Backbone:
């Protein structure tokens, strides 16, 4: 059974999650939240995420700074982010997406305010484009990827069921990427590293670049199914050739992060790592 992990460095101690699910969350002796994982079962995981979004729309977006925000517009915005999870979606695309579902348009300043509120509530995070020195002169895309703090929020926002995820494996793959980036961010923070991604104008992409303060770096491709491991490994080796290793150094690792149950090192030096083994 999966467990809830609390990032104490980002906990506000506001008590919103305790108010939503007191059986699951509680305060520790330092006034921060702790998780009662023994009380979490498969039946209520989905409802916890739905209740959290409901509380966020009714209370969270107001209590963060006292500013009144439209819950309906925020709800449509979260749905748009969920549909575009783990992709470098532009603000113009989000505005058009919101316009399709909400009769009143969302202005650009209002969108910026709503996105900022979600970031301050630690609901929304972004992964910027990489600044690694590259040999390639192909122009890069610079729009950041949008990530929710947990993929369960996207699933709840879109009211997806198990069959929906089976029917749309493309979206499921992006949700899996969101899950992996969530875990990678936790480990990156612990080692004073940052995450970015690479994508050029020809749509050649590497999902994650991890770089430490000391300059060491590694590249990661995220693939839900084992059938894409070979393609992902070849992609990483191509990317390595595009990096100016005279300035950046050789990669500390090249990794395919996958939903498969096994981990190993390939003959070409690329690591294949199960998401369940990432912490090891």
Residues:
């Amino acid at each position: 059974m999966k467990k809830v992990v609390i990032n104490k460095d980002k906990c506000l101690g506001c008590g919103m999650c305790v108010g939503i699910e007191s059986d699951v969350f509680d305060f520790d002796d330092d006034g921060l939240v702790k998780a009662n994982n023994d009380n979490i079962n498969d039946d209520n995981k989905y409802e916890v995420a739905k209740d959290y979004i409901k509380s966020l729309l009714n209370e969270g977006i107001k209590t963060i700074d006292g500013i009144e925000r439209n819950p309906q517009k925020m709800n449509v915005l979260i749905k748009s982010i969920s549909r575009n999870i783990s992709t470098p979606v532009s603000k113009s695309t989000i505005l058009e997406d919101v316009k399709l579902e909400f009769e009143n348009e969302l202005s650009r300043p209002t969108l910026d305010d709503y996105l900022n509120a979600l970031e301050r509530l630690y609901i929304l995070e972004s992964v910027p484009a990489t600044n690694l020195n590259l040999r390639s002169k192909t122009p890069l895309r610079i729009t950041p990827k949008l990530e929710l703090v947990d993929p369960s929020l996207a699933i709840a926002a879109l009211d997806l069921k198990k069959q929906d995820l089976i029917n749309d494996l493309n979206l499921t793959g992006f949700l899996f990427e969101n899950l992996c980036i969530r875990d990678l961010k936790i480990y990156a923070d612990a080692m004073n590293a940052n995450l970015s991604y690479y994508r050029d104008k020809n749509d050649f992409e590497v999902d994650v670049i991890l770089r430490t303060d000391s300059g060491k770096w590694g590249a990661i491709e995220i693939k839900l199914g084992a059938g894409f491991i070979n393609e992902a490994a070849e992609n990483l080796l191509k990317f390595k050739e595009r990096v100016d290793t005279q300035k950046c150094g050789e990669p500390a690792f090249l990794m395919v992060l996958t939903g498969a149950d096994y981990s190993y090192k390939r003959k070409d030096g690329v690591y294949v790592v199960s998401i369940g083994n990432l912490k090891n």
About this structure: Strands lie at 25-27, 33-35, 124-127, 145-148, 193-199, 205-212, 217-223, 253-258, 264-265, 271-274. DSSP finds ten helices and ten strands in the chain. Residues 25 and 35 are 5 Å apart (CA to CA). The mean pLDDT is 83.
